[in-house]
Amino acid sequence: MLSLDALSAIQTNLLSPVVLCFLLGCVATWVKSDLRIPESIYSILTIYLLFALGLKGGVELSHADTALLWRPALATLVIGLVTPLIAYFSARSFGKLSVADAAALGAHYGSVSVVTFIAVQSFLSGMGVNYEGFLSTLVVLLEAPAILVSLLLARFKQAGESDWSTLRTAFHEIISGRSLLLLIGGLVIGALSGTSGYQRVEPLFGAPFQGVVALFLLEMGIVASKRLRDLKKVGVFLVLFGIFVPIVNSLLGAVLGHMSGLSLGGTVILSTLAASASYIAAPAAVRIALPEANPGIYLTAALTITFPFNLVFGIPLYLRMVKQLVELMP
Q1: Closest by alpha carbon to 53, among 220, 211, 185, 147?
Q2: Is residue 31 classed exposed, middle or buried when 0-12, 13-18 and 19+ CB atoms within 10 A define those classes?
Q3: pLDDT tens digit string along 137-185?
Q4: For residue 68, how many other CB atoms are within 10 A of its CB?
Q5: Rounded to the nearest 5°, which phi and psi values hold at 32?
Q6: In whole angstroms, what is the distance from residue 9 CA to residue 57 CA?
Q7: Which CATH number fits domain 4-328: 3.30.160.100, 3.40.50.2300, 1.20.1530.20, 1.10.150.320?
C-alpha cells in the first residue's frame, strides 16, 4: 500500500509541466494529429539542453569542493561498469536474446538519459528537495563507460567473428558525438568562466531552460507513442525488462550514492541516472559497432518502456526508496 507521502510525490510528478507535455505528445499521436516539432527545431532544442546542462554544471564545478566530488565520481564509474552487466546477463539468461541484442541493451541501460536527468531535477525542485550542483559532471562520467563495456563484452563473446576496428570507430562516435561533446564543452566553459561569466548568458540559459524542456518532452511523447506498436513484437519479457532492470539499477545507484556522501536529493538523482536508459549516444554507437543488433529491441525498450516509466512513476518511486534507505543506513 502506497503511503500518503508516496502518493503526493506521484501526483506532483504527474501534474508537472514536463510530464504533462510528454502526455500531450502521446495524445497527439493517438488522435492522429499533425502536431510535430520540425526536425531542425528539435535539433536546436537538443543542442540547447545539452549545452545548458553542461554550462550550469561547470559553473557549480568551478566552486565545488574536490573532497566532496571524488567519492560520487567513483560511485558513478562503478555504476557505469556494473549496470551494463546486469542488463546483459538479464537479457541473456531470462530473455534468451542473442549476444548482440543483449550487449545493445547493456549499452543503453548502462548509459544515461540526459532528459531523465533534467526531469528528476525539475521534480526535486518542485518538491523542495535540494541537491548538489556538480551532478552534471556525473552525467558525463556515466555516458561512455557502459557503452564501451557492452561493446567489449560483445566482441569478447564473438571473438573471431568480428572486426575489432569497429570498436575504435564506435569509441570515436561516442567521444565526438554531440551529446558528450556539448556536455563536456559546456562543463569546461562553465568551469572556466565561473559565476560572473555565466551571469552574462543567464537570460538565455537560465529562466528559459524549463520551457525548452517542456517543448522537448512534447516531441518525446510523440516519438515514444509512435513506437507503441513495436510492443506487440518484443513480447512480455522486454516490457518486464524495461521496468525491473531500471529498478534494480536504481537500487545500486541509491546505495552507492548514499555511501559516497551525496545529499538526499543528490542520491535520488544518481539513483535515477542509474535507472535511466540512453536513446541518444548509445544508439549511435551500437549502430556502428553492433549492426546485427535489432533496433526494434533496444530502442523500444529504452524509449517506449523505460523512459515513460521513469518519467511518470520511476522518479517518485526512487525518491521514496532513497528516503527509506537513508532511514535504514543513517
Answers
A1: 185
A2: exposed
A3: 888 888 778 888 887 887 776 654 455 566 666 667 667 777 778 888 8
A4: 14
A5: 60, 40
A6: 26
A7: 1.20.1530.20
